[in-house]
Structures are given as structure tokens and as C-alpha cells.
């Protein structure tokens, strides 16, 4: 079950495009910082919080968490994020330099943070994790259960913990994008 458009406006999003689908089972925090463009969809049991920008034709599948605590997260057009993925723009220190978790005041913690950008035409496989200060280059395919802890170059297929590039990804989808945009333009023209 998705929210109706009139219900979505009650969330007071920073920006809300047309034809946006958000599951009634999704949890959204700080919606005044969240921008969502046209034709994007957020499925059941996702949790989004903070300064998040979602482009056009983005699909965020079930059980994903996107947490922009201290720095923004940008998800560009035509991105797919598979089930159970987690994207963080900040994280606690695990080496014992500071105390951990949000119940502790910041002066006693050692939190690293930085923006995350998932570039156009990227796809993130099931169970993957993306850490702060990461740019996923245009057209990347991230395999299932991959840990992306540093920026990755465009048009590659990445797998593993940590992510390594195993081969190039085809750019044929760029032609499909042109065809899709043209078909959308024709549909709008025919509706007039």
C-alpha cells in the first residue's frame, strides 16, 4: 500500500516530484530535508532520515536504510537500490577512541562523516553497505553483499568486502535512456 499524493504533501518534504510512490510501511524522519524527484519509489520497511536527495526514476527496495546524520546523501536519476541495503553519511568510531551511539553527547564520541553520492545509472545489490565519504561513479553495478568504503570509478562492476572492480559495465543503457526519455516526451505530447 502506497500513500496517496494528498497524504505525501502532509510530510512537508523539501521537494516532492510527481508520481512518487512511498509505502505506508516506510519510516521517514526529518522530511523537511528530503527531496524526491518524479517517478521514484520507496518500498516497505525502508527508513530514511536527514538531508537526502533522490533523483528521478529511483527505486529503493524493501528493508533499506538511508541515514544522512551529519552529511548529505545524494541518489541521482535511474538508480536502483536492492533489498536490505544500508547507506550512511556518518558512523561511530569502532577502535575505542570515543564512546558510541546517539545516546552519548557528541563531545564524548568520535564520529566520522562525509557526503555520499550514488551517481546516475548505478545499481546497488542486495545487502550492500555504503559508508561515508563515498562517491559511486556513474553506471556502477555493486554486487550483492558488497561493502563500499571508498569511492569507486564509473562504469564498473564491483563486488566483495571491501569492494573491488571485477570488470567494466556496458554503457548500452545510455541508448535505452534516450529512447525512454523520447517515449516519455511523446506520451506527454499526446496527452496535450
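Sequence proposed for the structure above (192 residues):
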Amino acid at each position: 500500500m502506497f500513500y496517496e499524493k494528498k497524504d505525501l504533501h502532509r510530510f512537508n518534504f523539501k521537494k516532492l516530484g510527481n508520481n512518487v510512490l512511498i509505502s505506508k510501511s516506510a519510516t521517514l524522519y526529518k522530511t523537511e530535508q528530503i527531496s524526491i524527484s518524479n517517478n521514484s519509489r520507496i518500498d516497505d520497511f525502508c527508513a530514511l532520515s536527514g538531508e537526502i536527495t533522490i533523483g528521478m526514476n529511483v527505486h529503493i527496495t524493501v528493508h533499506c536504510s538511508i541515514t544522512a546524520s551529519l552529511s548529505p546523501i545524494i541518489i541521482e536519476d535511474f538508480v536502483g537500490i536492492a533489498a536490505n541495503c544500508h547507506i550512511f553519511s556518518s558512523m561511530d568510531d569502532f577502535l575505542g577512541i570515543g564512546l558510541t551511539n546517539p545516546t552519548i553527547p557528541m563531545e564524548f564520541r568520535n564520529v566520522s562523516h562525509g557526503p555520499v553520492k550514488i551517481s546516475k545509472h548505478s545499481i546497488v545489490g542486495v545487502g550492500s553497505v555504503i559508508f561515508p565519504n563515498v562517491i559511486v561513479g556513474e553506471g556502477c553495478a555493486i554486487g550483492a553483499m558488497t561493502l563500499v568504503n571508498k569511492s569507486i570509478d564509473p562504469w564498473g562492476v564491483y563486488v566483495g568486502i571491501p569492494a573491488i572492480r571485477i570488470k567494466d559495465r556496458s554503457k548500452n543503457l545510455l541508448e535505452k535512456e534516450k529512447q525512454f526519455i523520447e517515449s516519455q516526451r511523446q506520451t506527454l505530447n499526446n496527452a496535450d
